[in-house]
Design brief:
The protein is of the alpha/beta class and 218 residues long. The protein has one domain: Aldolase class I (TIM Barrel, Alpha-Beta Barrel), CATH 3.20.20.70. Helix 9 links the parallel strand 7 and strand 8.
Length: 218
């Protein structure tokens, strides 16, 4: 499974890059707006930090405008993946962009039927929002399983990205369900490192070593 960082914050991105485990980045208009920097400018800066897929989302309403905006975003860097909402105009835009060789990430997917439309249009990635589906009282992880099964049945090459991930359990369950990618907020990636037994065990190991050799902790 690939790990993407769901953030447009440069400090978070730089810290995460040091771990050597992040394969790409997803952004959205809300994350970009939070940083107070225009979309294209911020995406350029992110591309300087990570050598991997960088999703940049269109903010247009019509297919024609989405296609034009998508072309501009894709021209920023070869790693840019154009993020497009799963609406009728968005699917029209994805179909056109994919025929031009521009990779797309179809976002705001909440059903397997929608994911099927994205794959038919030639999407590079589809992003089902498992956390928001859970919020509605439906099992978001079943959505991942259904999409993965459908794509395998018909040989679709569209990658399944688990989005709206709320914690470590979501990450593990998405991996078990066969998601190709999960995108994580910085705080969720930090959660993956922690386990009380790891921290307790390390504390004991170091204490025993220092005691045996009369070492004083720095």
């Amino acid at each position: 499974m690939k790990f993407f960082l769901d953030s447009a914050n440069l400090e978070e991105l730089k810290k995460a890059a040091e771990w050597g485990i992040i394969d790409g980045v997803t952004t959205n208009p809300s994350l970009i707006a939070k940083e107070g920097v225009p979309m294209e400018e911020q995406i350029r800066k992110i591309c300087d930090i990570f050598d991997g897929d960088i999703s940049a989302e269109v903010v247009s309403d019509t297919a024609e405008e989405m296609v034009e905006e998508g072309r501009r975003l894709a021209s920023i860097h070869s790693n840019v993946v154009v993020k497009v909402p799963l609406v009728q105009e968005g699917i029209k835009a994805v179909s056109r962009l994919s025929k031009e060789g521009i990779r797309t990430n179809v976002t705001l997917c909440f059903s397997a039927a929608q994911a099927l439309l994205a794959a038919k249009a030639g999407a590079y990635i589809v992003s089902p929002f498992i956390g928001r589906v859970d919020d509605l009282g439906w099992p978001g992880m079943d959505l991942i399983r259904d999409i993965v099964t459908i794509y395998k049945n018909y040989g679709f090459q569209t990658q399944v990205l688990s989005a709206s991930v709320r914690g470590a359990l979501h990450v593990v369950e998405a991996a078990k369900a066969g998601a190709h990618i999960t995108t994580l907020p910085y705080k969720v990636i930090e959660q993956l490192f922690h386990h009380p037994l790891t921290e307790k065990g390390l504390e004991q190991f170091l204490a025993d070593y220092r005691k045996a050799f009369d070492l004083i902790p720095a």
